[in-house]
Structures are given as C-alpha cells and as structure tokens.
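Narrative summary of target 7.
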Amino acid sequence: QGVRAKFYPNPDSPVLDENGKVLDRTMLERTFNYLKKTPLEVKVEKSKAKEKPPLPFNQVELQTYCGNRFGYSLEQTSKAAQDLREIYKAITYNRSSSRYLNEEHYADAPRVVSAVLGITGIELPDLDLGIKSSCFRKVKEPHHAIIPTGTKVDLNKLTEVQRNVYLAICQPEN
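Modeled conformation, tokenized:
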C-alpha cells in the first residue's frame, strides 16, 4: 500500500529559484526515483489527549450547529426545539442565550445523564460523572443552557428534524 507524500527541499538549496521552485528537473526526477525504491521508516505515536467537553448549546449555537450539520433553517431548528420543550418536555427552555448551567444542575446530572443514555442508546463506558465540567457555574442570565430534561421520550415518535435536534442537544459536538 502506497503513502502519498510531498517533497519539501531545503529552502537554502541552490536548486531552488527565489520562489522556492525546483529549477533542475533532472535532480527532482533522481530524487523521486530514489525515494520510490527506498523503504521509508515511519514512526507513528498514539496518545490520549485530554480535551474539555463542549459547552451545552444556547439558541444561536444550536441553530448554527443544526444548520451546518443537517442543513436546517433557523425556523426548522427553532420549531423542533419548541416542540421538544412544549409537547414532549424533553428539553429545557430553548431560547436561552447562555451556554452555562447553574450549580444545582450538577446535582441532577446523574439522573439526567442516565435517562438520556437510556433514551438514546448511547454507550459511554468510561463516563466519569465525578468530573465537574466548566459549564457548571452561577448563571447570571435569566435562563441556562439548553439541555435534556431526562423526561422519557420515544425517539421513533419524533420527526426527523425533532430527533436530530434532540440528539444534538444530548451529545453536542460543537
């Protein structure tokens, strides 16, 4: 199996012009033929990176995400979120400008997370609910970030737009 690579000659090489282009085609062909025949040693390192989880959505971030990810208009996303809140009681207030949660939400997080995992079928074997996200702090706005309530909802009874909006709220990739 071949590997695509780019050749970057030394910038100080006399075979380059003032724009960094190779002047000597013969030298370039010799280098190419040499590299084709020569086994190259590649070193791959794997490491676990520590990455903070994304903040929960506010209205604008949810609309932007759903527009980019699914091609939904602002109205489609807003209507789906409104239905999820009013009809299904599946999410919290959906017109929030905040991306943070009050401290009391942290105490309720195990219940909500457990319910959401059951509803969505998402498996997170390494989930550690003891780690406190930076999203938990005193919210100064009248409303907090948009999150699932943990209320049981049948995903099969939701429209495709409602289901995608709900799942986006449950597992933000933003």
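The CA atoms of residues 31 and 170 lie 53 Å apart.
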